[in-house]
Structure to design on (226 residues):
């Protein structure tokens, strides 16, 4: 079964689980006061989120946007934590926005925590984004790790977790360009660390995913060293 078909099957299964969860929740008795408070709280959060998104859209300077996101996150993360602690699973735009902002402010540990949950729940990206959640997160974290590589820094253990999630198809990333970029960077890190065999394996996977990954010459050179 292809990645796309497996992902579709997962989405259908998730939808069925969500219907069961929502059905059970609907059957649970709630007082009028509880219903009113829950709706009121949700409306306040949604309204505030829209206002904050507008504030961000008014800024053109990237550094200013990042600073504002870092300032806003503490306002929303407790609500995301409450959602996770309650074991709930339903479309949650706030969860996804916090995940996006955490990547932007380079809080990678927290971002990975939310990414694994959001992708498992098949959460959707906001409409303004053209890519699905697994692909967006994988590429965004690749770009972060690439900056670490260029700065002669390590991106582990986070980048290895991302690569493993994509390679194992736990994160269903079907775009060959993104796959190729991830495996190529994994190979570059391995090569820099003197792990020639491991680098060759990753470069071969990059070529398998995307023949245009840009590792052919480097791969042939490393093979001669083995």
């Amino acid at each position: 079964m292809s990645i796309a078909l497996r992902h579709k099957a997962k989405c259908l299964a998730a939808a069925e689980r969500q219907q069961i969860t929502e059905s059970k929740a609907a059957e649970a008795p709630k007082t009028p006061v509880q219903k009113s408070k829950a709706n009121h709280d949700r409306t306040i959060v949604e309204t505030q989120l829209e206002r904050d998104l507008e504030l961000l859209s008014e800024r053109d300077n990237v550094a200013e946007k990042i600073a504002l996101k870092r300032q806003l996150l503490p306002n929303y993360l407790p609500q995301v934590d409450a959602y996770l602690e309650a074991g709930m699973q339903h479309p949650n735009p706030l969860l996804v926005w916090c995940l996006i902002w955490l990547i932007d402010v380079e809080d990678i540990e927290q971002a990975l925590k939310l990414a694994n949950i959001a992708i498992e729940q098949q959460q959707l990206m906001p409409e303004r984004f053209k890519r699905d959640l697994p692909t967006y997160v994988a590429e965004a974290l690749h770009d972060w790790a690439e900056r670490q590589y260029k700065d002669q820094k390590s991106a582990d253990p986070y980048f290895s977790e991302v690569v493993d999630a994509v390679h194992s198809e736990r994160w269903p990333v079907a775009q060959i360009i993104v796959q190729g970029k991830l495996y190529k960077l994994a190979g570059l890190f391995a090569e820099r660390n003197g792990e020639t065999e491991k680098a060759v394996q990753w470069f071969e996977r990059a070529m398998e995913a995307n023949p245009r990954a840009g590792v052919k010459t480097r791969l042939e050179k490393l093979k001669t060293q083995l």
Remarks:
- The CA atoms of residues 145 and 155 lie 5 Å apart.
- The first helix runs from residue 3 to 27.
- The chain has a mean pLDDT of 88.
